[in-house]
Queue: 2 jobs
Job 1
Amino acid sequence: MKSSKDSFICLTVFLITLTGCDELSRFSYENYNCQPKLSSLHEIRVNQPKPGAFANILYAKDQSKAEITSLTKTQIIIESKSLRLIVDRQTGFTQVFKDNIYESVSCVIDKFKM
């Protein structure tokens, strides 16, 4: 009787721990819809928010991919040959370094996690 009670307690603690774990998700994305001025940056799509994954960058007339080089709870750094984006994950404020252009743009954040 005592071992079944212990097993029940262990199972309950395990389930509570598992449901409280934020890192276990099957699918997540982050989109940043921006209001550009100089750089023509319109949207940043991050389908797999993890270092080494690629983000889709949409401009007014074209699109490209860039690698996520750094990811924290508050910031994403995305880089390619001629582009560096520093995105604040809480406010959406984005610093754009593209070729010889520096621009800071405000972006609206759309996040989903399942």
Note: The first strand starts at residue 28 and ends at 34.
Job 2
Amino acid sequence: MKRTILTLGVFILVLTLALTGGSPTRAQSSPIWSSAIFYFNPADVPIETTGCDSSPECDDISVIYYRNTGETVPSKTIPIRPFESGVVLIGSVLFDETFKGSAVISSTVPLAALFRQAYNSSDPYSPILYTTLDNTMAGAGYFYLPWVQRSSGFDTEIGVQNIESISISLKLHFYKRDGSLYTYNPVEGITVEPQRSYIFRVSAIPLPWGNNFDGSVVVEANFSGLPGSHPKIVAAAREVLVGGNKAYGFEGTGNGETTWHMVSGSCSYGPGMQTTQYSIQNTSTTLTAEVQVDYYNADGSLLTTYPNVGSATINPGAALLVSGCDPATADKLTGKYFSAVVRSTNAVDLAVVGKAISKDGLMTAFNGQLPPPASPDGKYYVALPYVEFATREDGIRTYLSVLNVSDSTANDIQLTYYGRDGSLIAAANLTGKPLPAHAKTGSDPNVVRAIDPGAYGFIGAATIVSDQPVVALARVQRNVNLPGGVTTLGDDYVGMYYLKNW
């Protein structure tokens, strides 16, 4: 079985974001959130075909929940057929609207899954989305969170999960953007039992800089009493705007890399004047990183590079914040929607998280992505486990962006939408016109006529199969009419590659 790690932690159902010194707000009044795991089987045939009562349909998934209080709660297995998708409503399964902890999903198929949290109210927040992390994405002794903050508006909440079979201890290293470091290592220690998680808000850490922090975090883990032992951990973060409706989540990074692809990029783009920012973390704690950001037009042509001359410097552990509208590049990028490549010019590894911010209320978070490996058939496969598109104007709608991250033109990119039951709803070739290197294209269920206009619309999943390495980003948003000119709420999640090796 493939084991998928999902850090639920602080993201579950009850949130109180009480900021000291602030006046009471909606975000401080314990709003109720509905939390769910969305899953998708991208395999086109049954994988496990023997040893079950209903051969050849033996495939299933199961979830084990780990309360931070120590209790383990296993779920019933869920049968899953080729291309089938579904949702686990965590509160309904556990009969507990206050669950905090972590979960491990096991499956017999190459499962793609994500966590979604939605606010149950006529006064909505953005959905919070982030993808699951499997064992290959775990950090060995270290995990990196490139954008962490504490202010009057935001208080990052982080869940760190121990995926080992014995207990571990943690240290938290906070880096300001100038490289200033504070390590939180209390006398009593931070011990995390097997599969459990340590959950904290930045406001609960006695940072020497007071109530304002903007920077990055390195989580260090060791087996208890064994420094330098490097146990495996994963982590995820989420933020909810105090007194507002913006919210988003993102998964951290277990390993730094020298090159990251950012599907979303913009500078004062569209009616909402959408602008992206990238927080680029140096994952070395001893070496200085030198970085550049290359910006590409939708057709794959190079627009400009940040900085204009040379490279930008990032101190060990710290993170550099680069805006699409930085003065050094704004003359070439203003009014444009583009993609970017963040790269180290001196071979020091990096981690990257981006955020898209719009004047109409939209604020999303998304991770940098790496080119997927090729499957044995030479093709590249990406799964999107949650795609929803409502017919009503104020419903949830998902928009997909696909970026060619190879150095060659993609001539065959197939996008297929599947209903919850695994039925093929619609398919499209995104390369009716070949997609050059660094170019991107978009789609949604409405464009390819995957929605049922006489019903809700579409809800299911999608796959992308390409002859060149591609990555994808899904934006899940809805139209609203809220005070302060807030007309759009949403979040992003990254597509998940899988190997077709069956």
Note: Residues 90-94 form the longest helix (5 residues).
